[in-house]
Design a protein that fits this description.
single chain, alpha+beta, about 40% strand, about 500 residues, 4 domains, six-stranded mixed sheet
């Protein structure tokens, strides 16, 4: 701004000097004429006056010729600051020399020509979006269209600060040959030492954040371009309306629990153990009062008289039974009982196990229902697992012909792995859920297959899981509307 003011001040000073030279020439011309009228045809005075008049005219013309390049230079560097004043100054200077100089500066918010296209390039920059509306969590593709004619633009820089509520999809930006791209936070920057002449495009993918407060709002995205020689930066803005999240209708897979009977074999081979079991009770001592007569013969000398003596004897018999016995022996007979005991008994246990089965649902959405050749869209795979975790889950998406995966754009659920082989995208999870989660990736439509225009590319993802009978499929269509940069039509 300071430089433009200095050029404007110099232009005005130059015009003032030209006008002063013209007035001096006119004054001296009148003085010579008056001198001629006073002295008449006096040779001495007449020749001196004509010579003076001629000298002043030559001096005025030389002064104008010296100041004219300064006026032209000041015009080219400062006309954008005050085009009306500069045009008037140019007309005044042209009248001094009897010629007409036409100099019309180019102005506009999105296009600027350096010195009318004679000394620099004509630059134009516009921005478009793949869709006028987007839902929460979906992605859209922004396209920057750059038109440079006349000559190359030096030290060109294009900067796009994403509005609050949008995030850049890493790896989705394209760059013209010879340029560099960088992303710091929400600021995207393209830098070119020299670019053009050309009509070319740069694209990138941005995702709407899952913030409920964004529903119903309009996100204004503005890109600004500067280059050497542009007095005013070129600014271009495109609006995106945010709608609600699309409603997903889950499919509930009901299954009947299966009772599984498991035969558990014995943990060891049965061993026959012979155990010596002592008597289970304490011996009982029974005292029986028995009267046993004893015939005792006593030799009595010298009477030789036999005496029959009856002597009662109390005999105590110890038996283990309560049965009276006519025995003269106390017998305590221990009895060893050998009992066959199988201590390891094989048991076949039938356990009814109720194995829970997860309820799984899968669906697929796309950030835009239509796209142009060369454009990019974001696909989202929605996975819902309830009841219990799903094991050994594999999700596979084979892209249709005409679509190619944008390397580095895929996201995975925690604990899973992702791989891409050709057009086949694969996610593998040893265990996932219960959860309601998403996987996203960016795919680009081929810009060479013009036969795709007017067709619909059907993209399907398939999920398999041992706990779910068969496989589950989520499908979404993408309509190809036209060529890149031609407004969706041939």
């Amino acid at each position: 701004m300071g430089r433009e003011k200095r050029h404007l001040r110099r232009s005005r000073e130059g015009l003032a000097r030209l006008m002063q030279a013209k007035r001096l020439t006119h004054i001296h011309s009148r003085a010579v004429s008056e001198n001629h009228e006073v002295y008449g045809n006096d040779p001495n005075h007449r020749h001196g006056g004509e010579k003076m008049k001629h000298n002043y005219r030559v001096a005025g013309i030389c002064c104008c010729l010296l100041l004219l390049p300064l006026l032209i230079l000041n015009w080219g560097c400062g006309t954008s600051a005050n085009p009306v004043a500069s045009t008037a100054g140019a007309s005044a200077s042209a009248a001094t020399f009897g010629a007409t100089v036409m100099m019309t500066p180019t102005s506009g918010a999105k296009s600027e020509s350096l010195l009318g296209g004679l000394l620099g390039p004509s630059v134009n920059c516009t921005q478009t979006c793949s869709s006028a509306t987007a839902s929460l969590g979906s992605s859209v593709t922004y396209t920057l269209q750059l038109a440079i004619s006349g000559s190359a633009a030096a030290n060109a820089q294009i900067q796009d600060v994403l509005p609050s509520g949008m995030s850049y999809v890493q790896g989705s930006a394209s760059t013209l040959p010879g340029g560099t791209f960088s992303c710091t936070g929400s600021t995207l920057t393209w830098v070119y030492n020299s670019v053009g002449p050309c009509t070319c495009t740069m694209t990138y993918v941005a995702q709407v954040n899952n913030l409920v407060g964004l529903v119903g709002s309009t996100l204004a995205n503005t890109a600004v371009m500067t280059c050497t020689g542009l007095s005013t930066a070129i600014s271009t803005t495109v609006n995106l309306a945010v709608s609600a999240v699309p409603t997903l209708t889950p499919t509930i897979c009901m299954s009947t629990p299966t009772n599984t009977f498991t035969c558990v074999p014995p943990t060891s081979t049965p061993t026959n153990t012979f155990t010596c079991v002592p008597p289970t009770s304490t011996p009982t001592y029974t005292f029986t009062y028995t009267f046993t007569p004893t015939n005792t013969f006593t030799s009595v000398p010298p009477t030789n008289t036999p005496t029959n003596t009856f002597t009662p004897t109390n005999t105590f018999t110890h038996t283990n039974t309560s049965t009276p016995t006519n025995t003269f022996t106390i017998t305590n007979t221990p009895t060893n009982t050998f009992t066959f005991t199988n201590t390891f008994t094989p048991t076949n246990t039938f356990t009814a196990t109720n194995t829970p089965t997860p309820i799984v649902n899968i669906a697929q959405t796309v950030s835009s229902v239509s796209c142009i050749l060369g454009g990019a869209v974001t696909y989202t795979v929605h996975l819902a697992v309830s009841g219990c975790a799903a094991s050994n889950v594999v999700v596979q998406d084979v892209l249709p012909s005409g679509l190619s995966y944008v390397q580095g754009s895929a996201t995975s659920i925690a604990g899973g792995t992702f791989s891409c082989t050709g057009s086949t995208l694969t996610w593998v999870y040893n265990s996932v859920g219960p959860c309601s989660c998403e996987m996203t990736y960016v795919a680009q439509v081929s810009s060479l297959l013009t036969s795709l225009v007017g067709t619909t590319l059907q993209n399907s993802c398939v999920m398999t899981c041992p706990g779910v009978a068969g496989s589950l499929t989520g499908s979404v269509g993408l309509q190809i509307t036209g060529l890149l940069g031609l407004g969706g039509g041939l």
